[in-house]
From TrEMBL:
Family: Belongs to the IspD/TarI cytidylyltransferase family. IspD subfamily.
Gene name of the encoded protein: ispD
Catalyzed chemical reaction(s): 2-C-methyl-D-erythritol 4-phosphate + CTP + H(+) = 4-CDP-2-C-methyl-D-erythritol + diphosphate
Residues carrying the site annotation Positions MEP for the nucleophilic attack: 153, 210
Sites marked Transition state stabilizer: 15, 22
Organism in which the protein naturally occurs: Mesotoga infera
Name under which the protein is recorded: 2-C-methyl-D-erythritol 4-phosphate cytidylyltransferase
Summary of the function given for this chain in its UniProt record: Catalyzes the formation of 4-diphosphocytidyl-2-C-methyl-D-erythritol from CTP and 2-C-methyl-D-erythritol 4-phosphate (MEP).
EC number: 2.7.7.60
EC main group: transferase
Keywords: Isoprene biosynthesis, Nucleotidyltransferase, Transferase
Pathway given in the UniProt record: Isoprenoid biosynthesis; isopentenyl diphosphate biosynthesis via DXP pathway; isopentenyl diphosphate from 1-deoxy-D-xylulose 5-phosphate: step 2/6
Domain of life according to the entry: Bacteria
GO molecular function: 2-C-methyl-D-erythritol 4-phosphate cytidylyltransferase activity
Length: 229
């Protein structure tokens, strides 16, 4: 099964309030996006890694990867939205015969590569697999500040990445969305569901947090240190 991984790092990371995009910030002396790339680059099950990067930072990203001896990653320019960036990543491998694709946010560098085999075993035609985490907090559904419903949290999961699909399924869904001018999907699983696909989940074995602000970076540092003990 020929498999590609698309790592999306096209944002500017404005919420981090730093002089560089958040994916270039260091997490225990290694850039966040490098840690995410290494998850897949180091796997025998991944045949190709595509890094979707903001156009202004592609050259810098290439130099950094070369510094670490990672010279087989394709770096392509991202779009205005995450959806567009993923689509560009999918287009870049359109004619290379990939059967399966993992789509991952570079801002989640703590995902465990040990789960890649399980994800690939679970994916089927029209069936995507999403890494999730159970919610420990009670969740309110509100309207104008008032609580209108309290869903059963045992049935709730926080969607994360990677999200894994048959390449032709997710590529076709992206093309349909563009044709219908639907451009606001925030993840690929919801996009596939919109076109009659099905999604199943796999609980993450790590705290697979998304780094969006300074506090998240501090938490990630602590999680990495605990993992290394």
């Amino acid at each position: 099964m020929k498999t590609a991984a698309i790592v999306v790092a096209g944002g500017r990371g404005d919420r981090m309030k730093a002089s560089i995009p958040k994916q270039f910030m260091l997490l225990q002396q290694r850039e966040i996006f490098v840690r995410s790339v290494e998850i897949f680059h180091g796997s025998d099950l991944i045949d190709k890694v595509v890094l979707v990067m903001h156009p202004d930072w592609m050259e810098v990203a290439g130099r950094i990867l070369n510094k670490y001896g990672i010279d087989s990653v394709n770096i392509i320019p991202g779009g205005e939205t995450r959806q567009e960036s993923v689509y560009r990543g999918l287009c870049s491998i359109e004619n290379e015969g990939f059967e399966t694709v993992l789509i991952h946010d570079a801002a989640r560098p703590l995902f465990s590569a040990f789960q890649i085999p399980d994800l690939l075993k679970m994916v089927e035609n029209r069936l995507g697999v999403v890494v999730v985490e159970p919610l420990s907090d009670t969740v309110y559904i509100t309207d104008s500040g008032s609580v209108v419903e309290i869903p059963d949290r045992t049935k709730l999961r926080a969607a994360e990445t990677p999200q894994v699909f048959r390449y032709q399924d997710i590529f076709a869904a992206h093309r349909k969305a563009i044709g219908e001018n639907l451009t606001s999907f925030t993840d690929d699983a919801s996009l596939l569901l919109n076109y009659a696909g099905k999604i199943i989940t796999l609980d993450s074995i790590t705290r697979n947090i998304k780094i969006t602000g300074p506090q998240d970076l501090e938490i990630a540092e602590l999680l990495l240190k605990a993992k290394q003990k």
